[in-house]
Write a structure and sequence with these properties.
The protein is mostly helical. The protein has a domain of 35 residues. It is 42% helix and 8% strand. The protein contains two helices and two strands, in the order ααββ. It has a two-stranded antiparallel sheet. The chain is rod-shaped.
Length: 156
């Protein structure tokens, strides 16, 4: 699908015809006899013998590299957006899973705190001690770790 490139976007002005001067007789074209180029007579400064600047024809440029560059930029940008969106969605799922896990851990903590409070009540402690074979003390005492003795304070 390539279109033929334009030859030139702007027209080149036509070259004006050289005026015929009365002082110069017209010559008929004759073959040159000598291999050396003919020399011209020096001209007065400021006079140019029909010299003009001609614009060089511009090269026709193809739009295919520009179109490929634009297409690659657009594809790269869309790929980057897709990649960021996918990673954010994955992060959202991970965040949801962590919130569920935190809620479960809070429920376990509250259940364990309730169980600890129930087992540390005086009635339950006494029952558990008697189940282990312990008896209620008739006297209270203290231990001295420095002297390694039992100091008795009295009875019930």
């Amino acid at each position: 699908m390539s279109a033929a490139p334009a030859r030139h976007p702007r027209p080149i002005p036509a070259r004006p015809a050289q005026p015929v001067r009365a002082s110069q007789p017209q010559r008929s074209p004759q073959p040159q006899r000598s291999p050396q180029p003919q020399r011209r007579a020096p001209q007065a400064p400021g006079r140019h013998a029909h010299v003009r600047a001609v614009a060089a024809p511009e090269q026709a440029r193809s739009l295919v590299p520009f179109a490929w560059t634009c297409a690659l930029i657009i594809i790269g940008a869309l790929s980057a957006v897709l990649l960021v969106n996918t990673s954010m969605a994955g992060g959202a799922y991970e965040r949801r899973d962590l919130k569920i896990e935190i809620a479960d851990l809070h429920e376990q903590k509250s259940a364990l705190v309730t169980q600890l409070e129930q087992r540390s009540s005086p009635d339950n402690l006494g029952t558990a001690a008697s189940d282990l074979g312990m008896e209620p003390a008739h006297q209270y005492g203290f231990l001295s770790l420095e002297d390694k003795i039992v100091i008795e304070s009295g009875g019930k």
